[in-house]
Design goal:
Length: about 500
């Protein structure tokens, strides 16, 4: 039988409630029939539900890392609670009778395989190579493809010219604010800024548009309470806007001068608001193969400027020790259509992981991955790859954070000799005697205080801490935000 863990089931569930309901259905003994194919790739269950007739739910494991679920129930959730209940039946080792794979399932498998082969052929040859064609047909196909390519290039060039026009407007605004001084924030009329923010969307610049929206939020807040923090935040946003406008203008002009409108692996494409397709990232070589990842932390933020919730997973690569992030964006207007991510207390084995261009902690994504338990070998590998010198890591973090376009945190694994208390502060001390103050990022959960509540004193000595370097503007110093402690026995999360 298929080996399934609860972590895998919860990872597949569209939301926590669906997973819990699926578990209840299995525990109540609602299945009146369970069958599976001789080759163990197809499972079927007949489940009693609220309708007059029983529901038939199936799971196709022809690709074990990406099972396909089908159910006769009317639910719009995918997979539905009955499909998840079938997985709980498999996990519990219930008895399944043997059955043949239905003809419609076999046909769907064949169609899927044919599509995959066609896409692979098109990727290798640049055209559909299935079947022989006449000479005239080939010429027409090549001509059509050339026209499409030429039209696409012209559209990209036209878009870049429009973006340059929008960047000129944004640069004018930044110059005006810098010349007037942010000290005038209290009397600034926001209506004109809001109008410009709307215009930037018309210039294909959602990235600068979001920054301007953040600036407006800080100015608005400052006018209401006169708090210094809003002034500091506005200055930081303005600095990033200036850097983005100047670098992007040079980047786009260089592409126009060269006549090359195609994509490249420059992070400015996404900073301007471009959205990557996974196929585009792979075509540019922005991917890793045969990757094993362990999640070490998870949190959810709300971005007022974007009007989106962001589910962030923090993952460590077992082979390299590199920490990467997954970001699931859920616009407020579409919350019911976008599945919320959740903590994953396991490891993911993925054949291909796409990597978004950028420095620091890469943003990653994968389409298919098998969820497994975290093993002792995983933990030992992660611990062995942790940095030994806080001095070296701190220097690298300072250099990275100086970049105005850098993310505000650089996440790292650090091996420590102890976590000590000096006065009211907690300090991380490495085996070389180097140290750094621990602290909580503004606006995030207070994970540092949770170190004082750990059940075992041994967790404060000779372990590995996963966390993030960030610059504390109030104290004007670098701090380390603790997320998880990696021990030989498991991962102690301070933030889920």
């Amino acid at each position: 039988m298929q080996q399934i863990t609860e972590q895998q089931i919860l990872a597949l569930a569209p939301n926590p409630a669906a997973g819990a309901n699926g578990k209840k259905i299995s525990q109540k003994g609602s299945f009146v029939r369970r069958e599976r194919s001789a080759d163990d790739t197809f499972y079927l269950g007949e489940c009693q539900g609220s309708g007059k007739s029983n529901y038939i739910t199936t799971a196709d494991f022809i690709e074990p890392s990406a099972p396909v679920f089908r159910c006769s129930c009317p639910s719009r959730q995918f997979p539905c609670k009955h499909s998840l209940a079938l997985l709980y039946e498999i996990m519990a080792g219930k008895t399944f009778g043997e059955c043949e794979i239905p003809e419609d399932i076999l046909k769907k498998r064949e169609k899927k395989m044919a599509r995959a082969q066609k896409q692979e052929a098109m990727g290798e040859n640049g055209e559909d190579s299935a079947g022989a064609e006449g000479e005239g047909q080939k010429t027409a196909g090549a001509s059509g493809k050339k026209k499409t390519s030429t039209a696409g290039k012209a559209a990209r060039i036209k878009k870049m010219k429009k973006q340059l026009e929008g960047l000129e407007l944004a640069e004018k605004l930044v110059r005006e604010l810098l010349e007037a001084g942010l000290g005038t924030m209290g009397g600034t009329a926001l209506a004109s800024y809001r109008d410009l923010a709307k215009q930037l969307g018309d210039y294909y610049l959602p990235g600068p548009q979001r920054l301007l929206n953040r600036l407006i939020l800080e100015i608005d807040a400052f006018q209401k309470d006169q708090e210094q923090i809003h002034y500091d935040n506005a200055l930081e946003v303005l600095e990033k806007m200036w850097a983005l406008v100047k670098k992007s203008s040079v980047y786009l002009q260089a592409k126009l001068d060269s006549g090359e409108g195609g994509l490249d692996a420059d992070p400015l494409y996404e900073e301007l608001g471009g959205v990557w397709k996974l196929s585009e990232l792979e075509a540019l070589g922005c991917c890793r193969r045969d990757v094993r990842l362990v999640q070490i932390s998870f949190w959810v933020d709300y971005d007022e400027a974007r009007k989106e919730y962001i589910d962030t997973g923090c993952w460590v690569d077992v082979k390299t020790g590199e920490i990467s992030l997954t970001c699931n964006y859920r616009p407020v207007k579409a919350l019911k259509y976008v599945k919320q991510e959740d903590s994953l207390f396991g490891a993911v084995q993925a054949g291909t992981v796409q990597v978004y261009p950028g420095e620091g902690n890469a943003r990653i994504r994968w389409e298919q991955g098998a969820v497994t338990e975290v093993t002792g070998d995983d933990l030992r590998a992660v611990r062995a790859l942790a940095a030994a010198s806080l001095a070296a890591e701190g220097k690298a973090a300072k250099n990275y954070l100086k970049n105005a376009l850098a993310a505000p945190v650089l996440y790292r694994l650090v091996s420590y000799e102890r976590i000590a208390q000096i006065g009211e502060n907690l300090v991380l001390v490495d085996h070389e005697g180097g140290n750094i103050l621990l602290g909580d990022r503004p606006g995030e959960e207070r994970t540092t205080e949770r170190l004082r509540l750990l059940p075992r004193a041994g967790l404060l000595k000779d372990q590995v801490l996963a966390g993030g370097f960030y610059y504390d503007r109030t104290a004007r110093r670098l701090r380390f935000w603790p997320l998880s402690i990696v021990t030989e026995d498991g991962i102690v999360r301070l933030l889920y």
